[in-house]
Specification:
With about 80 residues, this protein is mainly α. Helices cover about 80% and strands about 0% of the residues. About 5% of the residues are buried.
């Protein structure tokens, strides 16, 4: 996504992105688990909402890194 561009703050961004990916994966597993357990609609909706939130946060971090890499490329 940002290829090999070493923009300032990249290591910290990578760490945040990895941590968020782990939360996203955990949330996806939670959705699958509640669906497999035939949980109530409310429980499934709650798990899906948590999944959607983690996905949004992950996508924001990706976009942040892409923007920082592009800005660094333009200004170097």
């Amino acid at each position: 996504m940002v290829h090999d561009i070493q923009f300032p703050g990249r290591p910290e961004w990578e760490h945040k992105l990895f941590a968020q990916e782990q939360k996203f994966i955990a949330a996806s597993h939670a959705v699958l688990d509640v669906m497999a357990a035939n949980a109530s609609d409310a429980v499934i909706r709650s798990a899906k909402a948590a999944f959607d939130t983690e996905m949004l946060l992950r996508d924001r971090l990706k976009a942040e890194g892409i923007a920082k890499a592009a800005a660094w490329e333009r200004n170097r």
